[in-house]
Amino acid sequence: MDNKYRFINTGILDAALNMAIDEAILIHHLKGEVPPTLRVFRWSQPSISLGRFQSIEREIELDLCQQRDVPLVRRPTGGRAVYHRDEFTYSIVISKRYGVPSGIITAYAYLAQGLMAALHLLGVQAEISDERVNKHPSAACFASSTQADLTSGGFKLVGSAQVWKEDALLQQGSLPLDNRAAEFFDMLRYPDITTRQKELTLYCQKMTPLHTFKPTASWDDVAQAFKNGFSTFFQRTFEPGELSSSEWELAHQLAREKYCDVKPP
């Protein structure tokens, strides 16, 4: 088994291409064409990614998103809505033949060891939440508790979502650096202002951004910590690499055909 895994920083890209790249890596990994891959990336403008099965009509103020020029994109993974502004986004693609266990919750707990190692390098002690899955989840990812949450001091820090394709998985996750909750909640659909404010208050009681614990941590600091933390956990070197020409070609195709238009689940 090759000890060298791949670390890719794809930089700043639009929402559709960001999601398409992750799916392209998953497809290539499933074929055995690329190694396990940890990717870190940024967004060309503030964006909202939606869970694979999330309803736009019920949960998103589409007109306001359009007024604010905040694009929507549907993730290939599940989970709830995530606001991509002043946050760190990662994805990891790996398969059972590299030791990842079967089952979503078990695999979450396994990969959480890499996340915790990364946060430890940033000076943050985190643990896996023991909360039960919320049967009435909020539209917002960080307001919804799952058995896969990473918390520190009782606050949710990292939200992640997963999808399996045969024996390979893609996990996508977000680590907020600063608190942009108020502007995010404006774009979530609620029956009235009072309900929105109540949900926003609960959200802020459950989550806190990284800069609460580590005010000086830059995006690049976090990227380096993720690379080193996952390398430590897997005891494999995540070597800096690039997407192959085939991955780029498929990603652009998927962006055009699947991710540019947000369709109902």
Description:
This protein has nine helices and eleven strands. With 265 residues, it is α/β, with parallel strands linked by helices. It has a single domain (4-259), classed as 2-Layer Sandwich (BirA Bifunctional Protein, domain 2).
Order of helices and strands: EHEEHHEEEHEEEEHHHHEH
Number of helices: 9
Q: For the report, how would you describe the main beta sheet?
A: 8 strands, mixed
Q: What share of the residues lie within helices?
A: 25-40%
Which band does the percent of strand residues land in?
15-25%
CATH fold-level name = BirA Bifunctional Protein, domain 2
Main structural class: alpha/beta
**Ends: how far apart?**
38 Å
The tally of structural domains comes to 1
Principal-axis shape equals globular
Task: Please report the first level of CATH classification, the CATH class.
Answer: Alpha Beta
Query: Superfamily at the CATH H level?
Result: Bira Bifunctional Protein, Domain 2
Mean pLDDT across all residues, rounded?
90
Low-confidence stretches: 132-136, 141-145
β-strand number: 11
Strand order of the largest sheet: 7-8-9-10-6-2-1-11
Radius of gyration: 17 Å
Q: What is the CATH architecture descriptor?
A: 2-Layer Sandwich
